[in-house]
Amino acid sequence: MTHGKTAGQSGVLVAILAFLLLVVPACADTVYVVRSGDSICSIVERTGVDSDALLEANGLGCDDVIHPGQELIVPGTEAADDTSSTARDVEKVEVVYVVQRGDTLSEIATAYGVSVQTIAEANGIPDPNLIRVGRRLTIPGATERANAGDGIGADNPFVRSALQYRGVPYRYAGMTTRGMDCSGLVARVLGLHGIEAPHNSRAQYELGTSVPVDELQAGDLVFFHTTRPGISHVGIYLGDSQFIHASSGGGRVKVDRLDRGYYHSRLVGARRVE
Predict the structure, then answer these.
(1) Known catalytic residue: 225?
(2) Does the pTM of the predicted model rise above 0.90?
(3) Predicted confidence (pLDDT) at residue 213 exceeds the cutoff of 50
(4) Does 179 have pLDDT greater than 80?
(5) Catalytic position from the list 27, 67, 193, 233
(6) Domain boundaries, the chain
(7) CATH top-level class for 16-92?
């Protein structure tokens, strides 16, 4: 870990606060939440990722400045086997999640496959119904549980990849960690697994095969009519009537339910992409 430099030194902003990640197979992305004290070079040195690949994955140029709190996608590389030093490092990483407006501890626990009590005890939260927006929560055991498939949809590669982007700001026409819209999230997730997808929810409704709503499986794409007739929104089904999507109303990538609330009556259909 590179030590922080003095505040008077400009252009130096970054060291790792935490990995926000769920482990996925070879070629998975990880996410850095950065703070003052490091640089792109130090991230490259620590992770072993190619600097050009790091810049491209985050839509950055060589002269762009990165800021504390910014999330950077670190593109994955092929792992030779599970005993590599990279694999060992990943297993030891503890997930840290920043509470977003509208989050509940139950929702966060479900997304990471741990119990509400586990998170509450690890973070000294006396009342699980009260969590402060912006608070950083340690999620102990999240990585190990993700590997074991204990979380909702945790054995599905699309789900594991999608959950990495939870909390990323909503941005129309975006598909980077600076911001993404609903179809941008889906296109990025599918792209991580070698599936080229259009950046358009109506066009994505042509992908794969149709799935009856009562036969939904983790990783299926779910489609909605929201702002206009026809397909206008898309998400990825997690299981247990939950899905993840980039919500313009919520302002971020978040988890919602299909069995009640706003999206229940607006579900149009689902597609399975394999």
Answers:
(1) no
(2) no
(3) yes
(4) yes
(5) 233
(6) 16-92, 95-151, 170-272
(7) alpha beta
Which of 27, 193, 245, 264 is flagged as catalytic?
245
- Matching CATH topology for 16-92 and 95-151? yes
Per CATH, the number for 95-151 is: 3.10.350.10
Residue type, 247: S
Any catalytic annotation for residue 67?
no
Active site residue 245: yes
Sign of the dihedral defined by the CA atoms of residues 18, 22, 26, 30, in that order: negative
Burial letters for 37-47: b for 16+ Cβ neighbours within 10 Å, e otherwise? bbbbebbbebb
Q: How far apart are CA 111 and CA 198, in angstroms?
A: 26
Q: Given 41, 62, 67, 182, which residue is catalytic?
A: 182
The residue written with tokens 């259909």 in the block is: 269
Is residue 262 predicted with pLDDT exceeding 80? yes
Q: What is the CA radius of gyration of the chain?
A: 18
Poorest-pLDDT segment among 89-93, 103-107, 125-129, 205-209? 89-93
| CATH topology (fold) of 170-272 | endopeptidase fold (from Nostoc punctiforme) (3.90.1720)
